[in-house]
Amino acid sequence: MTTNPVSDASFDEDVLKSDTPVVVDFWAEWCGPCKMIGPSLEKISDELGQQVKVVKLNIDDNPKTPAAYGVRGIPTLMVFKDGQVHAQKIGALPETQLKQWIESSI
User: Fold this and answer.
1) How confident is residue 3, by pLDDT bands cut at 50, 70 and 90?
2) pLDDT at residue 2 tops 70
3) 19 CB burial (10 A radius; 0-12, 13-18, 19+)
4) Residue 31 annotated among the catalytic residues of the structure
5) Looking at 22, 31, 41, 98, which residue is catalytic?
6) Long-range contacts of 36-42 (CB under 8 A, 24+ apart)
7) By the 8 A CB rule, do 77 and 24 touch?
8) Which candidate, 72, 81, 61, 3, places its Cα nearest to that of 37?
9) Does 100 score more than 70 pLDDT?
10) Which position among 34, 41, 57, 74 bears the catalytic label?
């Protein structure tokens, strides 16, 4: 299982109505720190498998959702549970800290 792209159009179905917790990575192609954490998120997604879904939302292509959730800087990571924001982290973290944060948030 790897990270999947979501869009403004699919956000409701893919994230808010998900049966499992979802980590949303708000990112952009031009963002260096976003690219740095990308491989770590892929690995964490594979390791945590069915416990959590990891998705990516490109803020340039999908401006509505980041605006609705007050995303001001990227990368911003949000954990959604039962359609609500459960946890939020802004900025790049080392892989071990990312995984610990995700595990403690789900």
Assistant:
1) confident
2) no
3) exposed
4) yes
5) 31
6) 36/92, 37/75, 37/92, 37/93, 37/98, 38/3, 40/94, 40/95, 40/98, 40/99, 41/3, 41/98, 42/2, 42/3
7) yes
8) 3
9) yes
10) 34
Check if the beta carbon of residue 79 is closer than 8 Å to that of residue 23.
yes
Catalytic: 23?
Answer: no
24-71: pLDDT as tens digits: 999 999 999 999 999 999 999 999 988 999 999 999 999 999 999 999
Cα separations (Å) of 51 from 33, 67, 88, 104? 25, 28, 18, 12
Question: Under a CB-based contact definition with an 8 Å cutoff, are residues 51 and 106 in contact?
Answer: yes
At position 89, the amino acid (one-letter code) is K
Reported residue count of the chain is 106
